[in-house]
Specification:
The structure holds 2 protein chains of 2 kinds.
Chain A lengths: L3 E3 L4 E4 L4 E7 L7 E6 L6 E6 L3 E5 L2 E6 L4 E6 L8 E9 L2 E4 L3 E6 L1
Parallel strand pairs in A: 2-11
Antiparallel strand pairs in A: 1-3, 3-8, 4-5, 4-9, 6-7, 7-8, 9-10, 9-11
Chain B lengths: L3 E4 L2 E4 L5 E7 L5 E8 L3 E10 L2 E4 L6 E3 L9 E3 L8 E8 L11 E2 L3 E5 L1
Parallel strand pairs in B: 2-11
Antiparallel strand pairs in B: 1-3, 3-8, 4-5, 4-9, 5-6, 7-8, 9-10, 9-11
The chains are: A mainly beta, B mainly beta.
Chain lengths: 109, 116
Amino acid sequence: QKEVEQDPGPLSVPEGAIVSLNCTYSNSAFQYFMWYRQYSRKGPELLMYTYSSGNKEDGRFTAQVDKSSKYISLFIRDSQPSDSATYLCAMNSGYALNFGKGTSLLVTP
Amino acid sequence: DGGITQSPKYLFRKEGQNVTLSCEQNLNHDAMYWYRQDPGQGLRLIYYSQIVNDFQKGDIAEGYSVSREKKESFPLTVTSAQKNPTAFYLCASRDTGGRRANEKLFFGSGTQLSVL
């Protein structure tokens, strides 16, 4: 079993929809949880960073961590075509990050 | 303007040839990383370095080599021993000052390597 599982999609939604992206993990030692956004053939950029269980909001984005269930989510409200990208979850593993495979999101006008 | 610079953006390798990918950062970060990204595979760690003149193998180090002679630079050489080198290569760095915020990785824009 991989330490971080993420549905690769693709996920297609109409503009304005609420998007829910999810990852599960198996290592209870993970403490830091991140979401990266990656546009095609570009480097990933850090979108959200959380440390504890609960919610963290930044504009249209909300990151949610449930350590008891080993489950993290990223919600995007009022999705825009510019949100079309691959979203990678990541969590710490000592010296480096463990990444999910990424979920491809397409927001259609 | 601080950041991580990878070059070249595109690179082509002939059979039996070694090629080197450049990664330079001016963020004053101690730790640097190389990841490989294949379609549908996510990011896989090749090598990482926590400090100058020291580096460690990641999950898929075979066929690759690195050096860390300067804090700012962490070049990756794809050797002829790497039989399937076609991939998108990403360099990243991290501040290891010990604060929570320093778990964040910052990435370069990537190098696409293809075999001729």
